Amino acid sequence: MKLVTAIVKPFKLDDVKNALELIGIAGLTVSEVQGFGRQRGHTEVYRGAEYQVDFVPKVRIEVVVGETDAARVVDAVVEAASTGQIGDGKVWVTTIDEIVRVRTGERGDDAL
Amino acid sequence: MNTGDTAWVLASAALVLLMTPGLALFYGGMVRAKSVLNMMMMSFGALALISVLWVLYGYSEAFGNDVGAGLVGNPFEFFGLSQLLGTQGVDKGFAATHLVFTIPSLAFVAFQAVFAIITVALISGAIADRARFGPWMVFAGVWATIVYFPVAHWVFAFDGAQSAVGGWIANDLKVIDFAGGTAVHINAGAAGLALALILGKRRGFGRDPMRPHNLPLVMTGAGLLWFGWFGFNAGSALGANGQAAEVWVTTMVATGAAALGWLATERIRDGHATSLGAASGVVAGLVAITPSCSSVTPLGAILVGAIAGVVCALAVGLKYRFGYDDSLDVVGVHLVGGLWGTVSVGLFASAATTAGVDGLFYGGGLDQLWRQVVGALAVLVFSFVVTYVIGTIIQRTMGFRITEEAEVAGIDSVEHAETAYDFASLGGSGGASPSGQAHAEARNTEGVRA
N or C terminus: fewer CB in 10 A for chain A? Predict the structure, then answer.
């Protein structure tokens, strides 16, 4: 089983969600996060005093899928979230050892 | 007694009272979320305390008969104000027996009271985030007693208005300061500078971001200040008359021009016109037109305001150059704006106005200009020196500044045991959270030190 984690621009969330639904993904988790990458932050000016705001708001999407689906999910996220501009985000895949559905106690692929 | 004049002055007094809660919003929005309550409490503390002192002896100190050289009124002459009570009875419409010009003395008491209150509150912007509340209240009372009440006597006590002999700036030097550029703004600005120097910089000043936590509050406050300022300036005519109307218009247009000047400065220098710049420009314009509102034409008011907007927008950067933490720019806006406004009378005054004096640019020569400069500098130096002494004594005896630990935890929770906003959406409030314990520990430390 794989965990696909994507950090994307907030305004791309709906596009990514729709793309994942189209390829049959049954569930995902979303959180609002902040951070920086090559885009760095931005500058705000109050009464002439400049403040560097280092962290940019982003959305983190997490999807747990079976071994074979991970590549398709990554491709769908990348296609949906891409604008070609700096700050589009990243997607990575990690292997997970175990997964349990809380309601039934099912484990492994059955819990997906 | 004129009932129209009385109605206008009573209404104006209420308008000016609203400026202090407005100032609390203006200042409160500009500090960080952990300090907003303390910031607003310094204004509300001034409202509470100065109201009482004014009735006890403040009015008498400012408007009692001069005790010598135009420096201060007799503080016991109208102690408690009972001496000024009295009307001619219900069949004569309760017409007052004690008058200042055409209005009851007590209407003048009310109007001048709210000037004293806001002047004290203005100072608090220089010491945001770091002044203990008890020592602030002590400072407010002492400062009003030995700085504001005497200076109000110098500037506002005209011979024969309430008492036979008034103050030296109004009657001997003959400075034109219609609504208090010297007594209110230069006075508060110089005091703010002195306190900022005594209390020192906030932790992280010039390094950490100290962004305004709520700009809509700042703009709401600026709006209330502008609204109330029509009472401040037009009410200073002490009558519902043509002078009040002329002053109303100069007050409006100078303020608009100052906001434009501030925004243009930002747009050219920083690339963006900001909401904080608009709010600050409004206040800078109001400050500058305060002394000059009765002596400049509407066109002159546009110039006074526009120059104030540009000059103050540049002046708020001085604190970074010279390294004093005047947190909310009391110096950059009130001291610099007050100086400019007071001096502008000597430059832009027109005899076509009710002040009836020509300034330098209207062919009046230097006569009014030097009077304005001397009056402004006298108040500046007096206020700075005496405030420095008061502040130093409080710092050495009570301890004016909060501890470093309390400053980091947030002055609201340490000094007032409150926080302005409940950020804990998962229901963490009310429990003994780790941060709550940190606050409690900081509070205990503070208590031991005090």
Answer: C
What is the distance between the alpha carbons of residues B157 and B151, in angstroms, rounded to a whole number? Answer: 10
Give the domain ranges of chain A.
2-111
Question: Cβ of A48 and B209 within 8 Å?
Answer: no
Judge: B317–A49 Cβ closer than 8 Å, yes or no. yes
Residue B130 tokens, joined? 């770091």
Q: Where are the domains of chain B?
A: 3-81+93-397, 405-421+430-449
- Cβ atoms of B175 and B341 within 8 Å: the answer is no
Rama region for B237: left / alpha / beta (φ>0; ψ in -120 to 50; rest):
alpha
Residues of B with CB below 8 A from A47's CB? 276-277, 280, 313, 316-317, 329, 332
**Which residues in B lie closer than 8 A to residue A49 (C-beta atoms)?**
317, 320
What pLDDT band is residue B311 in, cutting at 50, 70 and 90?
A: very high
DSSP classification of residue B237: G
Q: Which of B271, B272, B316 is nearest residue A47 as measured by Cβ atoms?
A: B316
The CATH number of the structural domain formed by A2-111 is: 3.30.70.120
B390 vs B394: CA distance, rounded Å:
6
- The number of angstroms, rounded, from the C-alpha of B325 to the middle of its chain's C-alpha atoms is 19
Q: What is the pTM of this model?
A: 0.87
Percentage helix, strand, coil for chain A under 3-state DSSP, each rounded to 5: 30, 40, 35
Phi and psi torsions of B245, nearest 5° = -65, -45
Using the beta-carbon criterion (under 8 Å), do A44 and B270 form an inter-chain contact?
A: no
Nearest C-alpha of chain A: how many angstroms from B133?
27
Give the 3-state secondary structure percentages of chain B, helix then strand then coil, rounded to 5.
Answer: 70, 0, 30
Q: What burial letters (b/e) apply to B90-126, b meaning 16+ CB within 10 Å?
A: eeeeeebebbbebbbbbbbbbbbbbbbbbbbbbbbbb
Beta-bridged to residue A107, according to DSSP, are A100
Q: Closest by alpha carbon to B152, among B173, B166, B134?
A: B166
What does CATH list as the number for B3-81+93-397?
Answer: 1.10.3430.10
Is residue B133 within 8 Å of B38, Cβ to Cβ? yes
CA distance linking residue B310 with residue B328, whole number of Å:
17
Distance from C-alpha of B433 to C-alpha of B138, rounded to nearest angstrom: 34
DSSP string, B168-204: HHHHTS----SS-IIIIIIHHHHHHHHHHHHH-PPTT
Model confidence pLDDT, tens digit, residues A55-98? 888 999 999 999 999 999 999 999 999 999 899 999 999 999 99
Cβ contacts below 8 Å, chain A against chain B, sum to 32
SS3 B31: coil
